[in-house]
Amino acid sequence: MNLNTWKTKIKIDLNFDLNTELLSDNSMGIYFEFNAVNSIMVHFKPLNELFKLNSPTGGKGILLHFQRDLIDEDDIEYALDVMSIFNKYPQLHIKEAREVERIKRLIELLKEEYFSSTVSYIMLKTLLKVILLHLIRFQNNELLPQDIYQKRVFHFLELMEINFLHETNAEYYANQLGISTKRLNQVLQDKLNLTAKQIIQQRQITEAKRKLIRSAVTTKELAFELGFESISSFSRFFKKNVGVSPTVFKSQQES
């Protein structure tokens, strides 16, 4: 993978503030705020959201942000676990000395690799995965309160991740959650500022881009895989959301 390609997938910012431009609207972010010797406040930015913090502490933190398709390159269980830590809680406070030291050491290794003249994308991805797995394990051990609406958002995202290729109707997910479609949309709009349909469509676009970039899939095959009735309806949908047709998008990535 060449330099320009991996730079579009993962980025480290050492001087983060609320005006820092992220990789894209489809990127996920983790801001590590170092408040004391044995304390790290971890702030998560899920897809389609903003960081829930007032003002970062200048040079006392580090921002990692990466495209969500980076985690899709691994197995579905890992991807769901990552989505879980990003959508369960906006912050995670790590105070246990050994865990703080472990996270700091992994971040330093990631920084060294990222800014190295011989940087390896595989190494970056591996180090990021190790950090995420530590955060997943730590969060799973924390007994933090979680409101019912946040649980419903997470359950919706989990269901969608598994079923979006063949279930694109919001009513299906509302039935699975035992609430009305109207109530589901109210909860999602309150927490994510998006309706179920908009979130599903964003996921379809992400998947379409991933397949167009990483495989030899044709527009016809992709339209069928994503549940569209015709190539023309898929092409219109893709162009409306991306700005160019699937064919043009694929050729741009190959050039």
What does this structure look like?
This protein has helices at 3-7, 69-72, 76-88, 97-114, 121-141, 148-163, 170-177, 181-192, 196-214, 219-225, 231-242, 246-254; strands spanning 10-13, 27-36, 39-45, 61-67, 91-94. With 255 residues, it is an alpha+beta fold. It folds into two domains: 3-141, no CATH class; 148-254, Homeodomain-like (Arc Repressor Mutant, subunit A), CATH 1.10.10. The chain has a five-stranded antiparallel sheet with strand order 1-4-2-3-5. 26% of the residues are buried. Mean pLDDT is 82; it is low at 55-59.
Keywords:
DNA-binding transcription factor activity, Arc Repressor Mutant, subunit A, 56% helix, 255 residues, 13% strand, five-stranded antiparallel beta sheet, 5 strands, alpha+beta, single chain
Tell me the helix content.
55-70%
Which regions contain 5 or more consecutive residues with pLDDT less than 50?
A: 55-59
Distance between the termini: 14 Å
Radius of gyration, CA atoms, in whole angstroms? 19 Å
The main β sheet shows up as:
5 strands, antiparallel
| Integer average pLDDT | 82
DSSP helix count?
12
Give the beta-strand count. Answer: 5
> In which order are the strands of the major sheet placed?
1-4-2-3-5
What is the number of domains? 2
- Provide the β-strand percentage band: 5-15%
Protein name: HTH araC/xylS-type domain-containing protein
InterPro entries: Homeodomain-like_sf (IPR009057), HTH_AraC (IPR018060), Tscrpt_reg_AraC-type_HTH (IPR020449)
Domain HTH araC/xylS-type: 154-252
Organism: marine sediment metagenome
